[in-house]
Design a protein that fits this description.
The protein has a single domain (about 5-175), classed as Alpha-Beta Plaits, CATH 3.30.70.560. It starts with 13 loop residues before the first strand and ends with a helix. A hairpin with a 6-residue loop joins β6 and β7. Strands 1, 2, 3, 4, 5, 6 and 7 form a 7-stranded mixed sheet that branches. The longest helix has 17 residues, at about 165-180. The chain has about 180 residues and is an alpha+beta fold. Helix content is about 25%, strand content about 35%. It has helices at about 40-50, 95-105, 110-115, 165-180, and strands at about 15, 25-35, 55-60, 60-65, 80-90, 125-135, 145-155. It is built from 4 helices and 7 strands, in the order ββαβββααββα. Keywords: ATP-binding, Folate biosynthesis, Kinase, Nucleotide-binding, Transferase. This is 2-amino-4-hydroxy-6-hydroxymethyldihydropteridine diphosphokinase. Pfam families: HPPK (PF01288). Pathway: Cofactor biosynthesis; tetrahydrofolate biosynthesis; 2-amino-4-hydroxy-6-hydroxymethyl-7,8-dihydropteridine diphosphate from 7,8-dihydroneopterin triphosphate: step 4/4. Its EC number is 2.7.6.3.
C-alpha cells in the first residue's frame, strides 16, 4: 500500500531545519503523535482528522514513561504512535504545520498552561519527523524531468529520533516492505 516507505533508511536521509522548508511541497509525511492526558479520546480524534488528508498507515500505539519524570516528581505516561500519510493533494510544510496546530487545538492543547506547571497535561502533540518532497528538476540541468523523483527529508530539529519514534517508523517501514510483492 505505501511502497514509497520501502527501503527508507533513516541514517542516509538529508536533514534540514523546518524553517528552510516552509514553502516546500510535501507529498507524504511521517508523524509522531503523543498524549499523556485522555489519550483514549484524543488519539482517535486526531487519527480521524489525519485520514482526511490522504491515505494513512499507523504504527502500534506505545505507552511510555515521561523521560522527565523522577521519584520526587512522578508524571503520567505518554501514549505515542507514528503515522504515515500519503497526502492527497500535496501541501506545503507550512500548511501542514498550521493544520496540525489546529488539530492540537481541537484537542484543547494549551501550551501556555503547560509551561506554567511542572506536570504537563498534553492532550495532543503532533510532531513532523520526516517529509517526502518531489524533485522536478534534473540535477545535471535545470530542465524539468518527465518523471519526478521523491526524496525523504528528516526534520533536523527532531533528530536523533526518540526510541519510541524510531520503533514506530521502523514498524511502518517493515509493514510497507511486507505488503509489497517481490
Amino acid at each position: 500500500m505505501h511502497k514509497n516507505l520501502v527501503d527508507l533508511n533513516l541514517d542516509d536521509l538529508k536533514k534540514c531545519l523546518p524553517e528552510q522548508l516552509q514553502k516546500q511541497s510535501v507529498t507524504a509525511v511521517l508523524l509522531a503523535l503523543g498524549s499523556n492526558y485522555q489519550a483514549d479520546t484524543h488519539l482517535p480524534h486526531v487519527r480521524k482528522r489525519l485520514a482526511t488528508l490522504g491515505q494513512i498507515q499507523l504504527s502500534t500505539a506505545f505507552q511510555n514513561p515521561d523521560f522527565t519524570a523522577s521519584l520526587e516528581q512522578p508524571k503520567p505516561d505518554y501514549t505515542n504512535q507514528c503515522v504515515y500519510i500519503a497526502l492527497t493533494p500535496a501541501m506545503t510544510l507550512q500548511q501542514l504545520q498550521q493544520t496540525f496546530k489546529q488539530y492540537e487545538r481541537e484537542c484543547h492543547r494549551q501550551r501556555s498552561t503547560e509551561r506554567q506547571t511542572p506536570v504537563k497535561k498534553v492532550t495532543m502533540d503532533i510532531d513532523i519527523l520526516l517529509i517526502q518532497t518531489v524533485l522536478n528538476k534534473n540535477s545535471l540541468s535545470d530542465k524539468q524531468t518527465s518523471k519526478p523523483s521523491r526524496q525523504w527529508i528528516i526534520m533536523a530539529d527532531r533528530y536523533p529520533l526518540k526510541a519510541h519514534e524510531t520503533a514506530g517508523v521502523k514498524e511502518l517501514i517493515a509493514d510497507a516492505s511486507s505488503t509489497v510483492a517481490p
